[in-house]
Every structure is written in C-alpha cells, then in structure tokens.
Write a structure and sequence with these properties.
GO terms for molecular function: DNA binding. Keywords: DNA-binding, Transcription, Transcription regulation. This is TetR family transcriptional regulator. InterPro entries: Homeodomain-like_sf, HTH_TetR, Tet_transcr_reg_TetR-rel_C_sf, TetR_C. It comes from Nocardia bhagyanarayanae. The chain has about 210 residues and is mostly helical. It has a domain at about 60-195: Tetracycline Repressor, domain 2 (Orthogonal Bundle), CATH 1.10.357.10. The longest helix has 25 residues, at about 50-75. It is built from ten helices and no strands. Helix 4 (about 50-75) crosses helix 5 (about 80-95) and helix 5 (about 80-95) packs antiparallel against helix 9 (about 175-195). The protein is elongated and about 65 Å long. The N and C termini lie far apart (about 85 Å). The protein has helices spanning about 10-25, 30-35, 40-50, 50-75, 80-95, 105-110, 120-140, 145-170, 175-195, 200-205.
Length: about 210
C-alpha cells in the first residue's frame, strides 16, 4: 500500500532498546542505532524523532516488558510478602541469565549514566525506579510492620535489585547473584517478623521468656 512503512516499528524499537541497554545513552551512536534497526539516519529521525525521544521510548518499551513481569510476580503472592519479594528477584535473575538479551538492566545502566542524560530523561529514569519501589511497597502492605519500616524495606529491595544488575554487568555469576537475592529476602523476612513482635525488638526475647 502506498505510504505504508515497510518495516516493523515495534521490532525496530526493540532493537534500539538493546543498543541503549548494552552501550548506554552516551555511547549509543546514531550509526549503532541505525545498524541495529536497519534504518538510515533520515528514516530513524522520521520514525522516532531525536535520539533522546527514541531513548525515552525505549525506556517505556523496556518498562512495559519487565514491569508487567514484576507486577505479575508480586501479585502472585498477595498474602506472602517474602515470597513476593523472592518472585520479584527471580524476574531479574531470569533476565540476567537470559543469553538473548544484554546483561544488567536498562534502567540501572541509565541511572548510572544520569550525568549524560537530559533533565527530562533523568526524571523518567527516576520515575521508573519509583514505580518499582511503589510496586514493592504495595506487596508489603498486608503486614503488621509500621509504615516507616515498610517504606525502608521497599527502598532496600529496589537497591538490591539494581545492585544485582550492576554486579551482573561486572561479570558476577548468576549463582552468586542468587545468593545475594536469597539473603536479601531473608533480611526482609527477619525485618517483618521483628516489626510484628515489638516485645522481641525491645528486649531481644520473645514474650514470656524466663528471666525477663
């Protein structure tokens, strides 16, 4: 049909996303993006606009893929927040172990290169991290811990999650990363258990222990 684009825009966006994911925003040249997508500079600009606009669309594309997976993992265990956190980490670890995608995480990669981003792109990256934190915080809601503790735990889980991505880029084996995730889940479990039994937190002993 006359005027119809002769390529798959979504497929091109996915390939561009992998370039930003692998190289980072600063090193993702137009030549690299064009080579990956099969588009010349004119077609690249005509289809996606500027490099920054393309980058931001890639961030949205990435978050739609993995955000949905995180959401599903967390919602699968509505009455078991620790298992939900473990499932959350499993999404990250499975992605890290997947040889068909670049190592690490596009969001972690972009956050590390924040000084090279525009204000709008930097805000989008921070917003995606905040979305991740809110998902975790929601999964922790149905516990007896106080609000401050749950807020801190949500931030902690996001920090560990981003660390897994950074360590994977540095070459850490997936087996080691699974140990990190397991210990983080144990920390979450211990913190929630302690917060649910304030007498233990205050005295170091469960209620009714002889010698108190």
């Amino acid at each position: 049909m006359s005027g119809r684009k002769q390529f798959d825009v979504d497929a091109a966006l996915d390939r561009a996303m992998r370039v930003f994911w692998q190289l980072g925003y600063a090193d993702a040249s137009l030549d690299a993006l064009g080579s990956a997508t099969g588009l010349g500079r004119g077609s690249l600009y005509g289809t996606f606009g500027t490099k920054e606009v393309l980058f931001r669309r890639c961030l949205d594309h990435y978050s739609s893929i993995y955000g949905a997976q995180y959401e599903h993992a967390l919602c699968a265990h509505p009455h078991d927040p620790v298992r939900a956190v473990q499932a959350f980490f499993d999404v990250t670890l499975d992605r890290i172990a997947d040889p068909s995608v670049p190592g690490g995480c596009l969001i972690a990669q972009s956050a590390a290169q924040s000084p090279t981003l525009t204000q709008d792109s930097g805000m989008q990256v921070r917003g995606l991290l905040e979305t991740q934190r809110r998902r975790i915080r929601t999964a922790l809601t149905h516990t007896q811990a106080d609000t401050a503790t749950l807020d801190e735990l949500a931030t902690y889980v996001v920090a560990v999650n981003q660390s897994l991505a950074v360590l994977s880029r540095a070459g850490a084996p997936v087996a080691e990363l699974r140990v990190v995730a397991r210990l983080a889940a144990t920390t979450v479990a211990h913190t929630l258990a302690t917060a649910a039994t304030p007498d233990v937190a205050e005295t170091g002993f469960p209620p009714g222990t002889p010698g108190q």
